[in-house]
Specification:
The chain is of the alpha/beta class and 366 residues long. The protein has 13 helices and twelve strands. Helix 1 crosses helix 2 and helix 3 packs across helix 5. The longest helix has 28 residues. The chain is globular and about 70 Å long.
């Protein structure tokens, strides 16, 4: 799926994020130092970005300013702006300009730590959906005891139907297999119990759809695992877990909050016990590895799966390290033909999904 030796371009919404634009500029400089095959285009207020490039470049060793350019715009979307309204009204906002440019150029990607709802609306407007996909989803990588899982949707869609979750299961499974070679891409539905009777109308109906797709060999044997309880989510039983965006965003933010709380509690307990302080010295290496596994900055960005292009969304509180890693992830994706692959996957399965849902609807009316 990938193409080696190809230079990719990342269009970065330089004005997006709680700490923008400084961390975005610094992240771009670090990325240029680490990867020599990436062009980075900063979209935002030129005067401010030029000044930051001058000051931040003195702090980053090995950077390459020749591969960083600026596209000026004096308009951007704020975190508290209404997403769809802001995208329509602020045509020249940095999110819109960056998305439009990424959609027009081959081997290019979009990245923003700004308003995620606006990024989704802009992606649908300029990149368009993959044909057959009803709603794109944010696929957030989360750490497990065995590696990583993809959680779809992590916040793009709060009101969902079974067809949405079914499509995300298919798209997520194939995406997972593309980035983690040799894996199954196993799929589960997040629920409050493992029995088929548990969950909501949405999860129960989605469960029936996915069981039907498994029976029709859309999924390889044993790829669909059924319900996944919250308590087992991080044990690595599934590679991909689907849920509505409201639930997914709660999981994501709860995990981030838990990681910070555990770290703070651990520090507090260690400081109160000198034996624990001695033990902490010997456990320092393991603790650093654990911090890396749970730090969102290590991942950098989550892909927006289902759009006909390469769009990535970073955490609103992203630091320079997160932006750097997000740029690298986006650039790697831009070298692939992933949207074309996912379009074929959806086309091959959509007829079966429609037939099954029509049958269920007919039985209800009978």
């Amino acid at each position: 799926m990938s193409s080696s030796g190809i230079q990719s371009t990342v269009y970065l919404d330089a004005m997006g994020g709680d700490l923008a634009p400084k961390v975005n500029v610094r992240g771009a400089l670090i990325a240029s130092a680490e990867k020599k095959d990436i062009k980075i285009v900063l979209v935002g207020e030129e005067k401010k970005l030029t000044s930051l490039l001058d000051t931040e470049s003195k702090k980053v060793k090995g950077h390459d300013l020749s591969r960083i350019s600026i596209v000026h715009t004096n308009e951007w979307i704020k975190m508290d702006d209404h997403p769809s309204s802001a995208v329509r009204q602020k045509k020249d906002a940095s999110i819109n300009i960056a998305m439009k440019l990424a959609a027009q150029e081959k081997n290019s990607a979009f990245l923003s730590a700004g308003n995620s709802g606006a990024a989704l609306a802009s992606a649908i407007l300029y990149m368009k959906r993959i044909e057959g996909v009803e709603r794109p989803a944010i696929a957030a990588p989360l750490p497990t005891t065995r590696g990583f899982l993809l959680l779809l949707d992590a916040g793009a869609n709060t009101q969902c139907k079974p067809i949405h979750l079914a499509q995300w299961a298919i798209l997520g499974s194939h995406y997972y297999k593309s980035i983690f070679q040799g894996t199954q891409g196993s799929v589960g539905i997040l629920s409050n119990g493992s029995e088929d009777s548990k969950g909501t109308d949405l999860t129960r109906q989605t469960n029936e759809v996915l069981k039907h797709l498994q029976a029709k060999s859309v999924f390889e044997e044993d790829i669909y695992k059924g319900y996944v309880e919250g308590g087992r989510l991080f044990h690595g039983n599934c590679d991909v877990v689907v849920c509505d965006g409201f639930t997914g965003n709660l999981v994501l933010k709860s995990l981030e909050g838990l990681a910070l709380a555990v770290t703070d509690l651990l520090k507090k307990e260690i400081k109160q016990d000198w034996l624990a302080m001695v033990g902490a010295v010997f456990a320092l290496r393991a603790m650093k590895k654990l911090k890396q596994r749970t730090d969102y900055a290590e991942v950098g960005a989550a892909p927006l799966i289902g759009v006909n292009g390469h769009a990535f969304i970073s955490h609103g509180r992203s630091n320079a390290k997160a932006i750097k890693n997000g740029i690298i992830r986006a650039s790697e994706s831009a070298r692939t033909n992933l949207p074309e692959t996912l379009q074929k996957v959806i086309q091959d399965s959509q007829k079966l999904i429609d037939q099954y849902l029509d049958k269920v609807e007919s039985e209800k009316k009978a």
